[in-house]
Every structure is written in C-alpha cells, then in structure tokens.
C-alpha cells in the first residue's frame, strides 16, 4: 500500500470548493458517470465536508452577522485538510443524519458509495493513503418489486393519442391491431391545416392531441419508451444520427457510458416516420424557436421542446403526469415504470431473460431476474409448462 506521511498530508491543503470541482470533473471525465449521478455523489460529499469542517460551527455563528450565504462562501473557500475525512468522522456523520432525518436504506447506501469513490479520488491525487470509507458497512438493501403494470393499462395511456390502439379480443398473446397511418398530422396539414372543430374531445390539451406537433411528439416519445425499454435519460439523449428507422434500431449510451443497441416495434417506426417527415412536427418545433439560441446539441436531438431545445427528463416526467391524470391511472406511473412494463410484458410473451437483460442494459442478470417475481402470467406459464400436474 502506498504510504503518505502525515506531514505531507497536512501540507496538502485545498479549499472544499476546488476539491468538489475537481471531484465532479473526475467523476464525469475519468469515471464516465452521468452528470446526474456525478451531481448526486458530489452533493453527498459536499454535505460531509461541510459537517466535518473544523470551523463549521464558528462559521454558522458568524452567519448571524454576515448572512448564511456569506458563511457558505467562507467555508467553501477556506483551506481544508483531506485527512479529516476519516472513518470515525464519516460514521458519526451518518449516525447524526439517521437520527435527524428518516433516510432510506437506498439513500444511506448511496452516501457510503459516494464517500468510497471520493476517497478513491483523494488517493489518486495523493491526498490520502487509504480508502477510509471501506470500513463503513452498507445496509442490506430492501429490494422492492416494481409494480405490475398490465398491457391494458399501457394501452389505455397510448389510446389517448390513438383510439385504435387496443388489443384484439381474441385472447392472450394475439397480435395487436395497428392503425395503418398513425396520426393524421401531415395529411391534415397538407389538406389546409388542422380543423380546431374536428374531434373536440381530443383537444383538451395540445400535449394530448396527436394532431399537434407537441402531441405527436409525446405519442412518439411514450410509444418509443415502452417499445424499446430505454431509460428516460437515454430517451431524451437520443440523437438523429443514432437512429436507423428502417432497421428499427437505435444506438444509445447507457449507464457508465456503455453503448448498446435497442430495438423498437413497427408502430414506433411509423410514428417516427411521421414525426421526422419533412415539414413535420419536429421541423415545426424548430421553426417556432429562436434558432440563434439553439446549440448543436439541440439541433441533433430527436425530441425537442416547444422552444426547439432538447427535451429534458423533467419535461418528460411532467408530460406523463398530465397524461396519467387524464386517463385516471391508479398507480403513480412514471417513465421508468414504462421500462418495467416493457420488461415484464416481454417476459410474459416468452422472451429469454438474457435477451431482456441485454435490451435493458443490465450489467448483472440478477437485476433482470426481479421481473420473474413481478409477472403473474409468467409464473402461471412456468408452473403449467414445468409441473407434472400443471395441466391436470
């Protein structure tokens, strides 16, 4: 193990502000973590550093005169000794957080992960001799099952945009009836514009009407999410040059910067063609924006906001919330639960678990196996096909 003398450590003083900035940059560029994950780790470490700062209480007292913002500025820009990040201090900090806040096992475990990777960063910069966070014990995670979402529930959601989106009544596993031309946006626009009086019941909100640019975008968005099983962060990061509509494939960058190819269905293909058509919804969103303010990242994005910017995760979550409330879905449906539905319904249809693992981008098969405990149909099929008395 590399030895670093105590004297050397004491001399390596750095401000928390510089330490956090370097840590955040290292997480993104060296460890290839997403900005969201890096931000969460940096936030955990910032709170830890603030707590163990030798003069924290004095700074707070001084805040009575100078204000809280001034106190924040003071401690962030004051020399900090990295050797203060010890196992004992981290344990005490976590114990106080547990007493003062009702933090979950997942949150507690993430904080420990944040501290371990931060100590790894300190070692790499010769600011620590060993990883003090390795001695911290992570709690046993309470693995909660994702809620079961039926195919009917998903169909009810998507039928808001397309009333013909429904399963046949001939039984389980039958092919769905697919509308020949999803959305009439382009045809109606070419015929002289969209008639505001037509189908008034579907024009409660533009975001729910596939005859508007925003509505058709949302239809493609949720159809593609359910059809491909992508994470919401992956969906909004899709670029035009990564899509092969004809082959129904998209190359995406997932967690940890890992590349994978996802596939999507025929319905999503037709919707994408309508959305990406010349003078179609996507072009309209660009035309309605201040193009001087658009970045290259915006111009290459598949999904755009009404201002022509790349759609954000928050905007997707908000849009699905509006759709969910309109339909009256009982469970708190989120974009990630559409991903759960994708996996569960594939399993019910007989897909191999390893294939589902690859499509979801899971590193471990154990993560994918959780869906075998969610799907009641899968359990019934497994029982009837394997048990000697299953069909008797």
Features:
single chain; 392 residues; mainly alpha; DNA polymerase, domain 1; hpI Integrase, Chain A; three-stranded antiparallel β-sheet; 3 strands; 3% strand; disordered N terminus
Provide an overview of this structure:
- This protein is mainly α and 392 residues long.
- β2 and β3 (259-263) form a beta hairpin.
- The termini are far apart.
- It has a 3-stranded antiparallel β-sheet with strand order 1-2-3.
- It is globular.
- Mean pLDDT is 77; it is low at 1-11, 66-70 and 167-203.
- The chain has 2 domains: 6-135, Tyrosine recombinase, N-terminal domain (DNA polymerase, domain 1); 152-329, Orthogonal Bundle (hpI Integrase, Chain A).
- The protein has helices at residues 6-11, 16-29, 35-52, 56-66, 68-76, 87-100, 105-124, 151-158, 185-190, 213-228, 232-236, 266-276, 281-287, 296-300, 313-327, 335-348, 353-360, 365-369, 376-386; strands at 243-244, 249-253, 259-263.
- The protein is 52% helix and 3% strand.
- α10 runs antiparallel to α12 (266-276) and α10 packs across α13.
């Amino acid at each position: 193990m590399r030895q670093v003398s105590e004297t050397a450590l004491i001399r390596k003083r750095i401000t928390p502000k510089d330490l956090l900035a370097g840590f955040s940059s290292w997480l993104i560029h060296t460890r290839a973590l997403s900005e969201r994950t890096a931000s969460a780790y940096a936030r955990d470490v910032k709170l830890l550093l603030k707590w163990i700062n030798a003069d924290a209480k004095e700074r707070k007292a001084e805040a009575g005169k100078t204000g809280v913002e001034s106190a924040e500025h003071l401690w962030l820009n004051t020399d900090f000794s990295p050797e203060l990040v010890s196992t004992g201090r981290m344990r005490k900090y976590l114990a106080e957080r547990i007493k003062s806040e009702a933090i979950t096992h997942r949150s507690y475990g993430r904080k420990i992960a944040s501290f371990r990777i931060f100590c790894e960063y300190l070692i790499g910069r010769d600011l620590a001799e060993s990883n003090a966070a390795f001695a911290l014990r992570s709690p046993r995670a309470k693995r909660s099952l994702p809620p079961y979402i039926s195919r009917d529930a998903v169909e009810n959601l998507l039928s808001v945009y397309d009333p013909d989106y429904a399963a046949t009544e001939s039984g389980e596993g039958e092919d769905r009836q697919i509308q020949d031309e999803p959305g009439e946006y382009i045809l109606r626009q070419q015929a002289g514009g969209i008639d505001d009086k037509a189908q008034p019941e579907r024009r409660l909100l533009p975001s729910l009407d596939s005859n508007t640019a925003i509505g058709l975008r949302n239809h493609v968005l949720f159809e593609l999410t359910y059809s491909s099983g992508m994470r919401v962060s992956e969906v909004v990061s899709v670029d035009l040059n990564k899509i092969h509509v004809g082959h129904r494939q998209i190359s995406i960058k997932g967690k940890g910067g890992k590349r994978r190819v996802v596939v999507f269905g025929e319905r999503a293909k037709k919707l994408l063609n309508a959305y990406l058509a010349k003078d179609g919804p996507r072009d309209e969103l660009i035309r309605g924006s201040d193009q001087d303010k658009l970045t290259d990242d915006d111009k290459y994005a598949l999904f755009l906001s009404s201002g022509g910017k790349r759609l954000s995760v928050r905007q997707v979550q908000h849009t699905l919330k509006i759709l969910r409330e309109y339909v009256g879905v009982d469970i708190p449906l989120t974009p990630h639960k559409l991903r759960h539905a994708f996996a569960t319904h594939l399993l019910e249809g007989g897909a191999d678990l390893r294939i589902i693992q690859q499509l979801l981008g899971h590193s471990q098969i154990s993560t994918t196996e959780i869906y075998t405990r969610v799907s009641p149909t899968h359990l019934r099929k497994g029982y009837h096909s394997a048990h000697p008395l299953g069909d008797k």
